[in-house]
Every structure is written in structure tokens, then in C-alpha cells.
């Protein structure tokens, strides 16, 4: 029986395990992929928006030669933090269900990589799963084609190709610039009048320069409505006209969403407006006592509502609350006396 089982070995899940360990609680992390899998899925050359200090967990400094660290530095950092604290992590094991028994303890049914299932027991559970497994789909014909990806890793495979990048966020801009550098013909297609206002300030001038020189084509107030083998169909949101754009590949940087299935099936209530789990902001405990949320899974449909910088603090709130409950139970038993309540 564990004091706490944490589902998800992202930075926020690791932080929760560390904070629980610091309070003397036994903590086991269950992760269906590898440690910090979401960061692993970032583009190979991605640079964070945040400083290294804001990405730190467990009071362990994040050494970086850059003010804004890169993906590969983060992978090393979080591995080393996990090793430093001796965190117990069951990787390549997926939590399939969370059930609370009449005695107040939880049963977590999991499936291991090669099909072996097991049941784990815990007094408390923290759901800290990420969102990269669930891209926001366009819902258009041809999206399931092998020329389409929602995961841009690196530009090399697209050298010399005609690539449509869908989106107007940092990920879309970064992808467009990397693709241009390897000689791809890039068209960035976005629904808005202009790109997101959150584009990295040191990147935006470089991107605008490439656009002004004709090295990247931008098509705003437009959306892709169909994907075919050698072209995409682009609809203008101004007049509804349709245009055919010759194309070899589509990189759809449309964002991702957290998986709500495990949350709702375990009894956690969801808000009506943003499909957001109901929880106490000061403790991160859901409407199910002993069942907590941490990290991006605590956000609404906008997965960017919670970042590592904010989510890393959830673990401390959770650990403090669990300890406070244990102390309350002890006080209650002491008040009842050695023979129990009258």
C-alpha cells in the first residue's frame, strides 16, 4: 500500500513525488511512456520560453549555458533530478482505471508494456498526466493521410519539399523557420489576422524578416479545409473563396488537449464551460477525497493555461494537504481516547 500513487512522470508529476517524499510519504509514479515524455516529443532543437530557474523542481538548480534552456538540456536535468531523489518510477505502464473502495483506499489498474496487468493500492492518488497524446484535430478530409503530422520533430525529412504549416503559435513559427533553413518551400496558414501575441520576442523579428524577404509565405484569415495527395484546399475566411495550394506535406501545429477519460471515469466532476476538473485551488484535491490533480491536466480546454512554471508548485500543495489530513486523523483518534468514542 502506497501513501501516494502519481500518474504521470512529467515535471509536475516528478515535483509532486519529490514533495511527498520530503514529507515522509511513500510515493510511486506510474508513467505510460518514458520520463518527461511530453518534453521528449518537443521539436529536437526547441528552446524554452522560460528561464532555467523557472523550470527547476525539488530545489535542484538547472545548469544551462543559455538563459533560455533547450529541450536536450531539460531532458538531462529532469533525469538527474529523478536520480538525485531516488524516485520510484514505473515507466511504460499505463494507468487504466482508478477506483475508490469503501475503506477509502484506491485501486489503480495498470497495463504494462507487454500486456501484463496489475493492481496497485494507494491511500491517495495524484493524476498528473500530460496532453501530447491528444492533438487537436482539424476534422477535415485527408487529415489521416501519411503526409500529415501533428508532431514536428525536426526539419531534415522535409528538405526541398513544399510544406504547409497550420497554426500561428510559437510551435508553428519555430517549425516554419526550421523548415525554411533546410530549403523547404513553406506556407504558414492561420485563421487569425496576425500571429499569436505570445510569439517569443527574440524570434518574431527573425520570422518577420523571412516573410518580408519572401522566404516564408503567410496566409492569414484562412483555413485548410481539405488535404489531397499533391495539394491542400485553403478557404478564405474573408470571402469564402477556395484556393488550391500545391503541397507535399502538412505540419498541423494545432495544439493538444489533456485526456479527460481517466478523470471523469474515476468520479472527478468537470466544469461545464471549459471541460475543466473541479478541484480546490489551495489543495489540488478534487471532489473525490484523496484524489488530486496536478500540472496541465488541471487546465481547461486551453492546455496552455498551466505551464511547468506554475504546475511545479502543485505537488507542495498536495503533500501539505495529505500531511494535514493525517495530523487531523491523529488528533481525532487522540480525542476519542484509548477505548474509542462514547
Written account of the structure:
- The radius of gyration is 23 Å and the shape is elongated.
- The chain starts with a strand and ends in a 6-residue tail after the last helix.
- It contains eight helices and 15 strands.
- β11 and β12 form a beta hairpin.
- It is of the alpha/beta class.
- The protein has two domains: 213 residues, FAD/NAD(P)-binding domain; 105 residues, FAD/NAD(P)-binding domain.
- α1 packs parallel to α8.
CA-CA gap between termini: 31 Å
In CATH, what is the homologous superfamily of the largest domain? FAD/NAD(P)-binding domain
Number of domains: 2
Percent range for β-strand residues: 15-25%
Q: What string, H for helix and E for strand, traces the elements in order?
A: EHEHHEEEEEEHEHEEEEEHEHH
Number of helices: 8
Query: Tell me, what is the CATH class of the largest domain?
Result: Alpha Beta
Shape: elongated
Keywords for this entry:
single chain; 342 residues; alpha/beta; FAD/NAD(P)-binding domain; five-stranded parallel β-sheet; 8 helices; elongated
Please give a quick description of this structure.
With 342 residues, this protein is of the alpha/beta class. The chain has 8 helices and 15 strands.
Amino acid at each position: 500500500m502506497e501513501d501516494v500513487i502519481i500518474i504521470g512522470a512529467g515535471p509536475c508529476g516528478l515535483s509532486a513525488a519529490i514533495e511527498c517524499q520530503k514529507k515522509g510519504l511513500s510515493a510511486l509514479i506510474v508513467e505510460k511512456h518514458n520520463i518527461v515524455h511530453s518534453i521528449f516529443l518537443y521539436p529536437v532543437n526547441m528552446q524554452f520560453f522560460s528561464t532555467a530557474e523557472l523550470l527547476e523542481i525539488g530545489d535542484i538548480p538547472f545548469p544551462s549555458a543559455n538563459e533560455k534552456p533547450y529541450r536536450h538540456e531539460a531532458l538531462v536535468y529532469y533525469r538527474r533530478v529523478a536520480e538525485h531523489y531516488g524516485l520510484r518510477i514505473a515507466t511504460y505502464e499505463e494507468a487504466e482505471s482508478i477506483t475508490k473502495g469503501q475503506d477509502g483506499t484506491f485501486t489503480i489498474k495498470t497495463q504494462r508494456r507487454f500486456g501484463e496487468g496489475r493492481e496497485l493500492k494507494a491511500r491517495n492518488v495524484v493524476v498528473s498526466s500530460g496532453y501530447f497524446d491528444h492533438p487537436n484535430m482539424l476534422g477535415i478530409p485527408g487529415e489521416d493521410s501519411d503526409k500529415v503530422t501533428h508532431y514536428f520533430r525536426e526539419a531534415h525529412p522535409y528538405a526541398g519539399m513544399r510544406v504547409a504549416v497550420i497554426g500561428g503559435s510559437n510551435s508553428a513559427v519555430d517549425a516554419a523557420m526550421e523548415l525554411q533553413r533546410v530549403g523547404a518551400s513553406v506556407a504558414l496558414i492561420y485563421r487569425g489576422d496576425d500571429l499569436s501575441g505570445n510569439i517569443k520576442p527574440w524570434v518574431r523579428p527573425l520570422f518577420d524578416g523571412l516573410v518580408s524577404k519572401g522566404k516564408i509565405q503567410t496566409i492569414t484569415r484562412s483555413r485548410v479545409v481539405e488535404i489531397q495527395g499533391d495539394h491542400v484546399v485553403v478557404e478564405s475566411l474573408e470571402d469564402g473563396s477556395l484556393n488550391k495550394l500545391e503541397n507535399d506535406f502538412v505540419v498541423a501545429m494545432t495544439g493538444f488537449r489533456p485526456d479527460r477519460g481517466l478523470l471523469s471515469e474515476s468520479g472527478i466532476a468537470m466544469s461545464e464551460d471549459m471541460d475543466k476538473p473541479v478541484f480546490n485551488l489551495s489543495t489540488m484535491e478534487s471532489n473525490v477525497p484523496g484524489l488530486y490533480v496536478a500540472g496541465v491536466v488541471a487546465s481547461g480546454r486551453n492546455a496552455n493555461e498551466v505551464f511547468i512554471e506554475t504546475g511545479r508548485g502543485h505537488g507542495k500543495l498536495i503533500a501539505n494537504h495529505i500531511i494535514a489530513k493525517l495530523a487531523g486523523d491523529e488528533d481525532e483518534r487522540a480525542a476519542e481516547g484509548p477505548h474509542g468514542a462514547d
